[in-house]
Write a structure and sequence with these properties.
With 141 residues, the protein is of the alpha/beta class. Helix content is 38%, strand content 18%. The structure holds 1,3,4-trihydroxy-5-OXO-cyclohexanecarboxylic acid.
Length: 141
């Protein structure tokens, strides 16, 4: 199986973006971490990042059409995008939502997610290791 890992806005700036919140791992490191973990678990992974809501929705549509499992960190769109929530509702494979930071220990606007109601699991506050955990969860079945 090929798992689709989708990252939303500003995650391409990992490593330099608010390192006290998101850590020192770069986006390239994150891609490598996902590829290594998927290889170890024995499945293929496709990793995408966009700052554009429409692009994220297009990837979710593709995943719905191919019944792919999805790991999604919709970043800021998590808390604002009805449209990304609607695209998540269409998914036919499983969806694991990831947030690097503990959104519940931050501002109250980060406590609501349009993604969570459609997710089979949610991983928050585990740093970039959350992506590893999400892939492991999908591999566990
Ligand atoms: C985030 C948390 C969001 O609130 C924030 O807007 C992000 C990153 C995280 O991974 O912790 O961009 O999704």
């Amino acid at each position: 199986m090929t798992v689709l890992v989708v990252n939303g806005p500003n995650l391409d700036r990992l490593g330099t973006r608010e390192p006290d919140v998101y850590g020192a791992t770069t986006y390239a490191d994150l891609e490598e971490l996902c590829r290594d973990e998927a290889r170890r678990l024995g499945f293929a992974v496709r990793i995408e990042q966009s700052n554009a809501e429409s692009q994220i929705i297009e990837w979710l549509h593709e995943a719905a059409d191919t019944a792919s499992d999805v790991v999604l960190n919709a970043a800021g769109f998590t808390h604002t995008s009805v449209a990304i929530g609607d695209a998540c509702a269409m998914l036919t494979g499983r969806l694991v939502e990831v947030h690097i930071s503990n959104v519940f220990a931050r501002e109250s606007f980060r406590h609501h997610s349009y993604v969570s109601p459609h997710a089979s699991g949610v991983i928050v506050g585990c740093g970039v290791n959350g992506y590893r955990l999400a892939l492991q969860q999908l591999a566990a079945g």
